[in-house]
User: Fold these one by one.
Assistant:
Number 1:
Amino acid sequence: MGDKIRKWIAVLLAGSILAMIQLVPAGGAVFVRENIENKEILGEKETSLQQTLHARAWVLMDADSGRILAGKDADTAYPMASTTKILTCILALEQGNPDDWVEVSEKAASMPDVQLNMRAGERYRLSDLLYSLMLESHNDSAVAVAEHTMMLILACAKKLVFFDRAARRGDYDIRNRVKGMDLEGKTLGLLGLGKIGHMVAKKAINGFGMEVIGYDPFLPADRWDPEVGRRETMEEIFAGSDIVSIHMPSTPETRNSVDRRLIGMMKPTAYLINAARGDLIREADLAEALQNGAIAGAGLDVFQTEPPSPDDPLFQLPNVTVTPHNAALTLETTDRMGLHAAMGIDEVLSGRQPSWPVVVPKEPRT
């Protein structure tokens, strides 16, 4: 059990940030107890339905330095305990199958505060229940990834790495032979306008005077930024942009979707940026286009295989700028990820509606 507990507690870790919770169970806790055959798969000692589970104290600290970043009654010494939800997930995965259908018991449905607002007799897939116990982050890494995207755009447009290498070897005349590109007035095409894509759009428009167009078939029209030109197809983005930046999730529909056909629609002066997911691009097709001069260059933070081989064809090309999938790994982001994890845990264990649930309860908590 020890190794599995440590694995699940890793959910609370963000880089070197450690979120620790001290729990005070008032008489015990109750888990979902019945599966489709009405057999008990999880159990805990009996408890009064009026008792609940609260967070007496929590502390967020830097695991390397021991520096306390935030906390509630953080200076008082308490014995450590794991959270009911993490233990529930461990037991469920050990003793149940994620594909099993489970039925909500009367006791589980009636527990106050720490609950999912389920009703007795309702049936769910166990994996869905485990998912609903999660809390999502709130813009924890969006700022960092958006800034990293702009860095890759600038590095490509200004040929930063190329000029850096030339200057180091004493080739100052390179400035008369090779020129960079201004961003002002250029068109940035965005594939995906979620949190990160939206931030990139704002930075490009307000910070660099770029024209921005976007493709996102899942974003409702009433949430579309009026400063971003809406396009109905990916083809329009690739054909009409000076820089294409990818901000899509990896799904069966999007994997390998950026291929020879779409890349072939780009201008020979255009750049392709990817700080989203490595499997969105067919790397062999991209390498071919870069080698043949079909596009000007690429800026990549993610790859099909990570870590990529040093012999990766993309690494051999002078018009490719790469970073080691570290767009989100800034000091501020790791602090924010740990803080928001601790805040969400404190909200749930104190009986409050969490600020950032993955699954919104059917009815507000009272």
Note: The two ends are 35 Å apart (CA to CA).
Number 2:
Amino acid sequence: MTNTLIFVDLASDDPAAAATFYADVFGWENDPRPHGIYHRMVPGGFFKHKDGSDSEIGNLHLGIFDAANARPHPDPAGVAPRELTTAGRKARIWILIDNPIGDNFRPENELKGRRLSGFDASNAVRMTKVSDGQLILRERIIGIARESGVRVMDPYLMLCTGTECARLDQEGVPIYKDADHLRASFIYAHAAMIDAALGMAPETAGLKKMPVRN
């Protein structure tokens, strides 16, 4: 689960001014999307190795959104609440758990045959076991999120049953493009977890709806 992501948005009644403050004080890049509604703050630089050298992982970004118009939302004007109070708009934090990974998810494992004679995937097994380590880490992340009031976008709820997860869809088409990454076409057609996390109505198509844990 090397690609688990954390998203943090801060509410403001003046996102442009808040973004300018962070840019001036910390030297962060101010990326308006659009100006005054949502500003992505880019610190730059990289996480450090234990020896102090740069790793390949860039520093996390920070979002600043307008409390009076919290995007994204199907309605361009947003919805209530529209104020900064303990019961109104406050920091939004999501954790996107990485999908199951491993060599057993590689699509080429299900193809039998040779290049000249053709390939056959008719005997492919749709489900495969996910490692115990990934399951333990997932439960640990969910537990921390629940205690912290953070919302979790969890692909396991769509892909997995118990300790086994899908590597083919119902039509026998591979879900993965390699041992780690889901195919873009599958995500586009089936994943409703992002919309659910943002409070939007999910599409009706999909293997299962992608519930979001509170």
Note: Residues 144 and 150 are 8 Å apart (CA to CA).
